[in-house]
Amino acid sequence: MKIATLIVRTLMGAIFLCTSISYFVLSNPEPATTGDFKAFQVGLIASTYLMPLAKSVEFLCGLSFLTGKFTTLANIIIFPVIINILLINYFLTPNNLPIGIAVFLGNLFLIYSHWKNYEGLFKMNG
């Protein structure tokens, strides 16, 4: 289990680090988009803060996954971003859905592997 956790954590960290760095450095040209996804993307860019915020979260969580520090916190912080990635891929760009599913399952696996750290969130006091 430890080796699988290390592999998944490293892969997820590399994915998030690479995508966030490429966003900020603009080393990769933006792929041409069409239809509903283009309208959605134009709205994200028009907000001026949302993409830099999401990419900053991805960068910090990617660093956390790669270093192994604050992984429990990074799993929770990145979860809404991953849900958004999954839903965007499902509804707007189905050809990218396998990537969204892989990242989603990777995050669920990391949450499962650190479950003892989350148990206190679900205990009923009474």
TrEMBL record:
<feature type="transmembrane region" description="Helical">
    <location>
        <begin position="73"/>
        <end position="91"/>
    </location>
</feature>
<keyword id="KW-0472">Membrane</keyword>
<dbReference type="InterPro" id="IPR032808">
    <property type="entry name" value="DoxX"/>
</dbReference>
<feature type="transmembrane region" description="Helical">
    <location>
        <begin position="97"/>
        <end position="115"/>
    </location>
</feature>
<feature type="transmembrane region" description="Helical">
    <location>
        <begin position="46"/>
        <end position="66"/>
    </location>
</feature>
<keyword id="KW-1133">Transmembrane helix</keyword>
<dbReference type="Pfam" id="PF07681">
    <property type="entry name" value="DoxX"/>
</dbReference>
<protein>
    <submittedName>
        <fullName>DoxX family protein</fullName>
    </submittedName>
</protein>
<dbReference type="GO" id="GO:0016020">
    <property type="term" value="C:membrane"/>
</dbReference>
<keyword id="KW-0812">Transmembrane</keyword>
<feature type="transmembrane region" description="Helical">
    <location>
        <begin position="7"/>
        <end position="26"/>
    </location>
</feature>
